[in-house]
Amino acid sequence: MESLQFPGRSAYTPAQFGLIIMAVAVAHGIVRIFSRTTLLHAGRQIEYRIREDLYKSLLSLDLPYFSRGRTGDILSRFSNDLTNVRMLLGFGILNVINTVIVYVAAIYLMARINPFLTLCAVLPFPLMILLVKQVSRRIFHHSKRAQEQLAALTSHAEESITASVVVKAYCREEHRIETFRELAARYLDSSMKMANLRGIVIPFMASMSGISTLIVLFVGGSRVISGAMTLGDFVAFTSYLAMLIWPTVVMGWIINLLQRGAASMARLNAVLDAKPEITEPKQPVEITKPAGEIEFRHLSFGYADEPLLKDISLRISPGMKLGIVGPVGCGKTSLVRLIARLYPVPDGMLFLDGTDINRLALKDLRDAVGFVPQESFLFSRTIENNIAYGREGASPEEVAAAIRLAQLDSDLAGFPQGIETLVGERGVTLSGGQKQRTAIARALLKNPSILILDDPLSAVDARTEEEILNGLARYYGKRTVLIVSHRLSALRNCDRIIVLEEGTIVEQGSHDELLALDGRYAAIHREQNLREELERL
Which residues, in sequence order, are CB contacts of 30 under 8 Å at separation 6+? Predict the structure, then answer.
């Protein structure tokens, strides 16, 4: 017998309605879990890839970029800015999607019940959109400024920690603390301005929801009283309207998150979009084993508009030992750095074995050059790791040979762990001379065709200097060697010595020829001899 159908009666029983509600609740929970894990995991993955791209981009940049930037600012972009971007791509996108879905669904259901009342309910929205537009620009501005202030704060802290010995030696703790306090106050001021804007937006959003509810209660209540709308439709309508309250309130938090993420992404893009000034040639000339001939042809170079090196013309034959001397700031270090293209060199001014170095692949060129800089940087690893960094896959015997040439073996014998001794951050546990000799051993292990020693013996005594020079003399062989030094004793056995002054070569010749010339080199020689005699008294 067929069941009777009564008008206005539901086709489902209360138990069936309960099961439907339970099923919808379970489905809602599953969707929320899936959406959160998917989007939050995606945010983490994107953060991971951006961090990799940032690191890769930084390593592709050259020295001019790092000379303009600060370490603390770069570190701040890796930490704070990346965190803001991850929050934007995780929680931000999740809540944007959630808000859009809730708004569309609620307004659609409200419009099905009563289009006119729906129009009344969304009347405050244009005012809300206008405020969002105005506030968003200000939040972006203040957020970017806050991140820049945080970067300055991080830079100051990093410098203070790195230079802790200098700070304490000069009793400048209070000055550094006061400077940190000023930077922290600026960051606090920018953060408070952002907090004030956020404090305006969220209550305003809540008030717009309240105004919308009041309009619905007044207009909808009047229609229920007049009989134009049923009480059930009115209750359903207000229930749908209540669904919009929380998304509207949380929109203020979303706006803040979006603008902070956008400001941070703009700072990250400044690194990602940076291009190195030194680029690979389109059709590089291949070199296998360079002979080591270096030629400067009317080379001029400067870090700004004013040139530091002016019209340098010099030919260094293969296997020649060239000494470079001159007063501080005359361009000695800049001259030798150009050989490895650590700074951009104009075309047609610097040649290796007759080929413009701008036509050589960077890896081939730098593999041919062993460079010991003035400031010997050591990684926070063992002495063996730092030396083996010079050549991948070097055997322990080769490392030991480089240590002997650099006269570091006697020092290692005094360390409890020998070659496995950890040097600490930037080699803090080693003396200046030990750091320099470790750097020399690293360069020697590379077995380069061209060896550049940029004042590498300034931190060792005269006896150790003599021992190192004697050991290096046996190593030089047919290699081209450039030695920059303030001590003329390190240049005595060079085939040729050039004297730089104000970026130009004022004298050149052998040690004996320059002494006979009785010019600038001879004056430096007399001054150093007099100083040594006074020290012996």
Answer: none
pLDDT digits (tens, 9 = 90+) for 516-537: 998 898 998 888 888 777 766 6
* CATH of 294-536 given 3.40.50.300, 1.20.1440.230, 3.55.40.10, 3.40.720.10: 3.40.50.300
Alpha-carbon distance of 455 to 355, in angstroms, equals 28
What angle do helix axes 173-226 and 231-242 make, rounded to 10 degrees?
A: 170
Q: How far is CA 274 from the centre of its chain?
A: 11
pTM: 0.71
Q: Are 158 and 75 in contact (CB under 8 A)?
A: yes
Q: Which amino acid is at 119?
A: L
Domain 21-272, CATH number (from 1.20.1560.10, 3.30.559.30, 1.20.210.10, 1.10.150.120): 1.20.1560.10
**CB contact set of 229 (below 8 Å; sequence gap of 6+):** 114, 117, 220, 223
pLDDT per position as a tens digit, 440-478:
888 888 888 899 988 877 766 777 777 777 777 778 878
3-class secondary structure, 310: strand
